[in-house]
Amino acid sequence: MSTVENTETQSSAASVRPAKRSVPDGLWLRCDACNATLFRKQVEQNLNVCPECGHHFYVPTASRICQLLDPDSFEEWFAEMSPSDPLGFSDRKPYRERLIDEQRKTGMRDACTVGRGYMRGRPLVFGMTDSAFIMGSMGSVVGEKLTRAVEKATELKLPLVIVSGSGGGARMHEGIVSLMQMGKVSAALARFRKARGLFISVLTNPTMGGVAASFASLGDVTIAEPKALIGFAGPRVVFQTCKIELPEGFQTSEFLLKHGFVDRIVHRAELRTELARIIDYCGG
Amino acid sequence: MPHVHQLPFEKPLYELEERLLKLEAQPDPTPAEKESMRRMRVELTQMTRERYQNLDAWQTVQVSRHPERPQTPDYLELVFDEFVELHGDRSFGDDRAIVTGFAKLAGRKVMLVGHQKGRNLKERNECCYGCAHPEGYRKAMQKMEMASRYGLPIVCLIDTPGAFPGVGAEERGQAYNIAVNLRDMSTLEVPIVCVVIGEGGSGGALGIGMGDHVAVLEFAYYSVISPEGCAGILWKHARHADKAARALRFTSKDLLELGIVDEVIPEPLGGAHRNHFGMATTLKGSLVEAIQSLEGLPVPELLERRYQRYRKIGRFEEVGQLPTA
């Protein structure tokens, strides 16, 4: 692990947005993977990776931007775009209320952030989905922001990096309108591809359902963080359908690498370096 | 005619029909009996029309899943004049859940892609009840790509509960193959007409559903998630599927209002399952009309239209307030 990365990252961490929900509150926390009791600050300084076992914790949008892009280089686009309620949806709680609660909790308007920035001096268009906001699911705002980001990247002839963290897939609360966002973003990526744009898709824990079945799978190069959950159907649904014990490591990054759907598994500390290197290879 | 599968809300219809059949079976009916039979026929028609005009979302789902509802193979016989099936995805196998091949539609040569659920238990198991695997989506894409090169319009008949959720499907890249279809269908240089003929189940439906003209049969549905799946997650139990069905707004009327589909194709009295031939005739008319309207378009215009068709879907506020903490 590179310590240079870490200091670089932390210096600008406060400048974007306050980090929320990165690791549970409190001075100490327990690692989900190895059960070690860890000093919270130490984990944060280590890019939210467990210093004992290397387990990759969730990273909020602001910290992710700091980790990947050059300090203060990120210019956010369409920051004020906000969700509406196309169906008038209500389950046990109206979608409108749910949105307000999620917005309060995360300080974000919706699950997606896009913009332009620099990665070790290389200009690029950057987008990400944040699994803290309704599981990072894709509704109209996520679909629209990503589509615009892809169109901008096409127009500006810049490489595109999208970091996915979406356990929810397409957002149920926006129904069929969400499903169509998959088609919308994918069609934009088709045009970007035809214009010889480079798209690097970074899959983080979790990337599932309609997000996995659209833009997240369409990278020219697909990178995954270690041990992320990635797949189409949720493991519970697969288990209920097949009624067989799921293979060990099913739907992890390593599983996808083995079956040929991921190019590289990259530790978070190496991510920026790796991405910059790939951009160089493809003439970005 | 014995009805093996009766939907709960159709019970009064079948009762009336049975009484009518009994009367009709009597030899030499009196004029009074003839008159009462006539009245019963009128009543039956009215009752059927009324029931079907007022189906709720969950009843619509039941109709769309009716075992006697016409499926792709029925339409292959009733709508198309010829079908030359093409098998296989060239890298793993031949998924029976999606059938593909050359077909003739009112004298036109087209490429047909359609989900297949199977009629009996053996067929259903072979077809995984219409849930396609990655090889199905790959097969569809491979044939559609060929159609694009030879200038054959594409007809997609969608009828799936969803893409198959299984270990093998995940191992062979279910998500990846659907994603590729969404991307690559958007660039095919021939008209694509898609019709949801029964169930439009999520990514499994959209995986062969990126078209220039997207239609839905009157009692079909098209949804981001099955009502049972949605209920299981948001209501914590699948028994609330009827509530989820209402909330998801996925009936043909909703889909037209939301701008998701371009056309709702009316079904015969009492649903497609009561009159395969009638349904097929209407469907054929719609398909021909849709292809005709797209045929003359220059390729760049066709592609731009298709792009914009999806580009404009989505509702959001350009500038929204963030609630104060």
Report on the structure:
The complex is a heterodimer of chains A (284) and B (325). With 284 residues, chain A is of the alpha/beta class. Chain A folds into two domains: 24-55, no CATH class; 58-282, 2-enoyl-CoA Hydratase, Chain A, domain 1. In chain A, 36% of the residues lie in helices and 18% in strands. Chain A is built from ten helices and eleven strands. In chain A, helix 1 (3-11) packs across helix 3 (61-68) and helix 5 runs parallel beside helix 6 (175-194). The longest helix of chain A is centred in the middle third of the chain and has 20 residues, at 175-194. Chain B is of the alpha/beta class and 325 residues long. Chain B has two domains: 16-54; 61-311, 2-enoyl-CoA Hydratase, Chain A, domain 1 (Alpha-Beta Complex), CATH 3.90.226. Chain B is 47% helix and 15% strand. Chain B has helices at 11-25, 31-53, 57-64, 72-78, 121-127, 134-149, 167-171, 174-185, 202-206, 227-234, 241-248, 252-257, 276-295, 299-311, and strands at residues 82-85, 98-105, 108-115, 154-160, 192-201, 213-217, 221-223, 263-265, 316-317. In chain B, strands 1, 2, 3, 4, 5, 6, 7 and 8 form an eight-stranded mixed β-sheet that branches. In chain B, helix 3 (57-64) crosses helix 11 (241-248), helix 6 runs parallel beside helix 8 and helix 10 (227-234) packs across helix 11 (241-248). Chain B starts with 10 loop residues before the first helix and ends in an 8-residue tail after the last strand. Classes of the chains: A alpha/beta (284), B alpha/beta (325). At the A-B interface, strand 4, helix 4, helix 5, helix 6 and helix 7 of A face helix 7, helix 8, helix 9, helix 10 and helix 11 of B. Strand 4 (82-83) of chain A pairs antiparallel with strand 9 (316-317) of chain B, so a sheet runs across the interface.
